[in-house]
């Protein structure tokens, strides 16, 4: 008997619309769902502890021979993303040699920040990791810090800091392209099981889209957001890995390779 596929699930609210039919709508019978923040899921996928996950897009570029990509599915933005926020005490152009804190929970957003600091603002700061669920990087002396996911969405996040950048918006201004923060990556599973999972994920995403308002009411308390805020946030995100989103992904890989974050631009390999 074939074992159940182990599906990673990002605990932030941005992943929920794609997995809504699985978590709320009764789809995906037999799946084993494993939760974690992006960096945790990246590690579990690499160690073979899960089969499929909406994993940081930079992870595919770092392991292009180990993973395939599920078509059609992405957590992305076409402009402002609102949940990837870079805060600074002074202008980004003056951060050369500065102390910049980056969250241990992230992978892709950290590389995106490095790309933008180098190619848009022309600076090379000193990077330091912090736990965004526990630490205040500014109390520790940081000149700037990156926050991701639901932490970045919370109101009152260092409101006195004068320089605030939505990295989805900055990327859009820089390139005119969408940005793919996570793609569904495959490390295990039979071809038949993966084809079934792909159909389930597409149906789950469709359930999330058509039930968005109702889901925001019922799941708002779980994420700690008002329903109207959550519904608007979900509506602003992009979940379709269409040709333009793929262009944005490949442009990101080209810039990541240019600054030495990955050895080369990977060829995209599709899992189904």
Number of domains: 2
Residue share in helices?
A: 25-40%
Shape: globular
Instruction: Determine and state the CATH class of the largest domain.
Output: Alpha Beta
Poorly predicted ranges: none
Averaged pLDDT:
96
If you consult CATH, what is the topology of the largest domain?
Answer: D-Maltodextrin-Binding Protein, domain 2
Helix segment count? 10
Strand content: 15-25%
CATH architecture label name of the largest domain: 3-Layer(aba) Sandwich
- Could you give a short account of the major beta sheet? 5 strands, mixed
CATH superfamily of the largest domain: Periplasmic binding protein-like II
- N-to-C span: 22 Å
Helix/strand order? EHEHEHEEEHEEHEHEHHHEH
Rg value: 18 Å
What does this structure look like?
With 272 residues, the chain is α/β, with parallel strands linked by helices. 39% of the residues lie in helices and 23% in strands. The chain has helices at residues 16-23, 38-46, 57-62, 108-119, 149-153, 167-175, 191-210, 212-223, 227-236, 243-258, and strands at 6-10, 32-36, 52-56, 68-77, 84-88, 99-103, 126-130, 144-148, 163-166, 179-186, 237-241. The strands form 3 sheets. Strands 7-6-8-5-9 form a 5-stranded mixed β-sheet. Strands 3-10-4-11 form a 4-stranded antiparallel β-sheet. A two-stranded parallel sheet has the order 1-2. Helix 1 (16-23) crosses helix 7 and helix 8 (212-223) crosses helix 9. The two termini are 22 Å apart.
């Amino acid at each position: 008997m074939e074992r159940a596929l182990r599906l990673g699930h990002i605990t932030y609210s941005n992943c929920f619309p794609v997995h809504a039919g699985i978590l709320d709508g009764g789809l995906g019978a037999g799946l084993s769902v494993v939760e974690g923040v992006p960096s945790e899921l990246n590690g579990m996928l690499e160690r073979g502890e899960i089969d499929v996950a909406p994993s940081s897009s930079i992870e595919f570029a770092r392991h292009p021979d180990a993973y395939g990509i599920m078509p059609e599915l992405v957590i992305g933005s076409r402009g402002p993303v609102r949940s990837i926020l870079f805060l600074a005490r002074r202008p980004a152009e003056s951060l050369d040699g500065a102390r910049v804190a980056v969250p241990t929970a992230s992978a892709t957003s950290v590389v995106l920040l490095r790309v933008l600091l180098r190619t848009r603002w022309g600076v090379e700061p000193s990077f330091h990791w912090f736990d965004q669920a526990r630490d205040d990087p500014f109390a520790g002396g940081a000149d700037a810090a990156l926050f991701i996911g639901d932490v970045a969405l919370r109101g009152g996040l260092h409101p006195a800091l004068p320089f605030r950048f939505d990295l989805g918006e900055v990327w859009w201004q820089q390139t005119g392209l969408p940005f793919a923060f996570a793609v569904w990556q495959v490390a295990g599973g039979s071809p038949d099981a993966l084809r079934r999972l792909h159909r389930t994920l597409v149906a789950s995403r469709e359930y999330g889209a058509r039930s968005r308002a109702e889901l925001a009411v019922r799941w708002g308390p779980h994420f700690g957001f008002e329903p109207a805020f959550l519904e608007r946030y979900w509506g602003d995100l992009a979940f379709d890995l269409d040709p333009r989103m793929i262009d944005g992904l490949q442009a990101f890989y080209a810039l990541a390779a240019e600054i030495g974050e990955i050895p080369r631009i990977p060829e995209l390999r599709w899992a189904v």
